[in-house]
Specification:
By secondary structure, this protein is α+β, with helices and mostly antiparallel strands. The protein is 17% helix and 38% strand. Among the domains are: 119 residues, Nuclear Transport Factor 2, Chain: A (Roll), CATH 3.10.450; 107 residues, no CATH class.
Length: 478
């Protein structure tokens, strides 16, 4: 069955129907009719590319990458090839020489490539393969749908087109080389995220309700985790160096261990909590207790293991770092309108693929003229002889209207050149180098919902890793 890629907007109720019976398998050989009686018979199924052979090709494609065998890998591609590579917000389009040249460099380091949900749609002369790919190499990991077109060339099946349809850079664990950990306030108390996830069985008390927030996630809930195993409990009493968004630091103690969960419930769920009548008007729901609401929110996702922090008076904390002497670049606000660096960064920003993609959609999909971004905002970060400009543009409108977003960080070098550090960085509130290796790190907000901030590490090809807290948003914005 061919898989379709759909984008659903608004609140949609989907009904399930009985699946259609599978089509009969196509014969590997189709014989032409040899007589009138033969011609009167039901038409034979058309010849199609063999499904098993295509899947064997994909098996070989995966094996070559995981074994680091570039010679075997190169042989799988057709003489005429188009390759489209995506990594986060960036896009590259290659011919055969360029694509395999890029991949040969990739083969110099071990990698892990996994493919799931493989769907083969076979035609008479080619087959389309759709799959979900997970790629990992060193500290970089991404996943997303990939599409390959397979053709027959000189009696063998070859890949004639390969496209990474979407690249979602995986979130790094909050425990990483810089020792970055989010600090989150719940119910007036600060908590440091100690690990990506905990176990519900570790919970030892009722959920503590947190007030509704102004940004996603709407609700956060904490439960004590006295039943956690010895290793998590060993965090009690440890001292961490915490930082505010300006780089000011203090020492904070972990006083207890807990589990944190939350998210944004559907608005209908909240109406039920508040005792609103059902649509028929026949029944009024009793108002849910705070304990019931907290339990509902706590069950929205697998909880994070967190530590309650004791902060010195006057200390604010956005995150913790284990790095010894991080260098923070001071936030300087918007540059002067006549700053040549501003002009250079703005021009470079408008040339980025993410910006151009929004421009194309603005013109072609919505039949608009002019620049899609009515306003471009720029903020400077400076220190240690280095200067960075964070550039952003966004249009947030209704579900059926044009929406666009592009963000980037540029370093300003000699001659006011704007050198791209990374795209898709959101709105940075902190720019720093945690360990003196020259790689730029950011603590940033998402433009649309703010959230709890993302920790990003910029690499030579964009964002190398990311640590973000993941809470579900089940609400309907349309």
């Amino acid at each position: 069955m061919k898989r379709a890629f759909l984008v659903l907007t608004g609140c949609t109720l989907l009904a399930c129907s009985e699946p259609a019976a599978p089509a009969p398998a196509a014969s590997s050989v189709a014989n032409a009719p040899s007589s009138a009686s033969d011609a009167a018979r039901p038409e034979a199924a058309p010849v199609t590319v063999d499904d098993k052979a295509v899947r064997a090709l994909i098996d070989g494609w995966l094996a070559a990458q995981n074994k680091g065998d570039f010679v075997a890998y190169e042989k799988l591609y057709a003489a005429k090839l188009e390759g489209i590579k995506r990594s986060g917000p960036r896009v590259w389009r290659y011919d055969r020489k360029g694509f395999l040249g890029d991949r040969e460099r990739m083969f110099k380091k071990p990698m892990t490539v996994e493919a799931t949900n493989i769907v083969v749609t076979a035609g008479a002369a080619s087959a389309v393969v759709e799959l979900e790919q997970r790629f990992k190499q060193g500290s970089f990991e991404d996943k997303g749908p990939k599409r390959l077109v397979v053709v027959e060339e000189k009696g063998a099946l070859k890949i004639a087109r390969e496209e990474m349809v979407q690249s979602v850079v995986a979130g790094a664990s909050p425990t990483n080389a810089a020792g970055f950990r989010h600090v989150v306030e719940v119910g007036g108390k600060p908590y440091v995220v100690l690990g990506p996830r905990g176990e519900v069985s570790w919970a030892s008390g009722p959920p503590a309700w947190a007030p509704r927030r102004e940004a996603h996630p709407d609700f956060l809930v904490v439960r004590p985790a006295a039943k956690a195993p010895a290793e998590p409990l060993a965090w009690r009493g440890r001292v961490l160096k915490v930082y505010d968004e300006d780089g000011k630091s203090c020492d904070a103690s972990v006083t207890d261990i807990a589990l944190m969960s939350g998210g944004t419930p559907h608005f209908g769920e909240v109406l039920r909590w508040d005792g609103d009548p059902d649509p028929s008007g026949q029944l009024t729901m009793p108002k849910a207790s705070l304990e019931s609401r907290a339990a509902n929110v706590f069950g929205m996702t697998t909880p994070y293991l967190v530590g309650e922090l004791e902060l010195p008076k006057g200390c604010a904390a956005a995150f913790a770092l284990e790095a010894a002497k991080p260098t923070f670049f001071e936030a300087k606000g918007a540059p002067a309108s006549d700053d040549p660096a501003l002009r250079a960064a703005t021009a470079a920003f408008k040339g980025l693929p993410s910006y151009q993609a929004s421009q194309k959609s603005f013109e072609e999909d919505f039949q608009q003229k002019g620049d899609w971004a009515p306003k471009i905002e720029v903020a400077a970060f400076e220190g240690n002889g280095r200067r960075f400009l964070a550039v952003e543009a966004s249009v947030v409108a209704g579900c059926a209207e044009f929406n666009g977003e592009a963000t980037a960080l540029f370093e300003i070098t000699s001659g006011n050149r704007a050198v791209l550090v990374a795209e898709g960085v959101g709105r940075p509130t902190s720019v720093f180098d945690s360990d003196g290796d020259g790689a730029i790190e950011l603590f940033a907000e998402r433009l649309y919902d703010g959230g709890l901030g993302r920790y990003l590490v910029a690499g030579p090809n964009g964002i190398a890793s990311e640590a973000a807290l993941d809470f579900p948003n089940n609400d309907c914005g349309c």
